[in-house]
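[Q] Does anyone have a clean structure-token version of this?
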Amino acid sequence: MIRPCQLLAAMTLVMPTTYAQTETQTQSNNYLVFISAQTAAKPEWMAVAKALQAKYEGVQIVELSDLNDCAEMMKKGKARYAAFVARPEEIDYKLVNYIHRAARRIDDDLWGDCIWGIVTGYRAEDALRIAKDDKPLVIKRMLATTNVDSSRFEHSACITDWKPYQVMEQSGYQPPIETGPHQLDRAQRDCAIEAGIQLKFSTELAHKKPQLIVTSSHATEFNLEMPFGKGLIFSYANRYYQLKPSQIPYFAQNVLSAANKGDFAPLAKLAQQSQAGVIKPDGERRVWLAAGNCLFAHVKRSPDSMAVTALSAYGCNQLVGYTVPSWYGDGGWGSLSSLFSNTAGSSLAEAWYLNNQFILHKSNRIDPRLMQAEFNGSSLKQGQQLAESIIAAGIPMKNVNMSYLGVVHDRDVVALFGDPRWSATLDESHASSSLKQVWLDAQTLQISALRDHDERCAIWYPHRMLVSSSSHEGAVVTNDFLLIPKLKLSKGEQITIKLK
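[A] Here you go.
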């Protein structure tokens, strides 16, 4: 754990080498847009890449024969941000694996060196909407299928995973109250329970304009269950549809199994039969963090996937989630923690990226050889491959435990969709983050505690600093970010870090 006096001393020690700051901010914020030659040949999709180029100064568009060939170009371009403009048919978990690893090869250290995102949509015009949006989002309204701190929001509704059919809801920054079916009389309660709690989710999404959606519970590429299986929404043809709890067994056995084999006829038929259950898009800009869902962000080369529909029909400019089954949890829940518990003003993209660096840090701390291991599977049934990869890295089987398996599993499988430089942040006007960061000059950072803080902290620099990557007393300094795995500050305390 680092106390203020220790950290200041640590920064002096870990920054022994300083280089002349000759690059401009535009140059040090290199933004590359990757697009495959096949997609670039389609004018409507090339327009997406050009929209990103027009939005930011100094953006380079790079055409590739295959998106899986980006590593050398990322290194050559010294990317700090990278957007992958891709049709849904080009996107799967293997692409996400590859980009994570390519982003770690831009320089010679073990860290990811750029924030990257995949820009896609059901149609090119949906991706173009995401690419063109240049207005930051300050999040004031939230919808969740798990328990999330409601104090940050003017309105929030959490379908909890504490007990079935429980909803904790508040408006006007008030303490949340239970509003689920258990508060109704018996006849109304029985009717509501039969209808399913997905009705609440659907109503909130269609009418309450949530700007942040946080989800947990079972999911696949094509559906999201409510907690305890008390309802479901599924995706088809750029819309979400509802199913009652009693319909879930049929969906799982006859519809989902067919879709997983590439047969979407049963999904289309069910959507047609469920027109009354369609969730109406509301036109609100939002972000989605699928913190505890398996597979939610696995596009599976299908425009009918949950992620593509969220990005296209339901206004999500960014989406974070797993492309494989989730079990260890650091990738998803860690991103949520970084969004809520880091310094004020941290964006969702930064939270996702910095959390991934914490996973790399944890992996390296457990055993540096873990950096040579890889999880390349699509399901937990391939866990043997994961264990064999760790053993092949030179780690004895007797040492391999859940932490060894978990950090290797999680570090390359959580994706960010959307423009990686676009900003979505939590509102700070009512209840703020525990830490505040201020850059006093180009190389001097001040971190202040707005309330007691005793957890990790990470800073993404406003531009690339030309310094060597190193660590001391648990803190890690690179040319793009600062990681402090444990920082203890009392309310009112502050530390000043001079990067020289």
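[Q] Thanks! Anything notable?
[A] The first strand starts at residue 31 and ends at 36.
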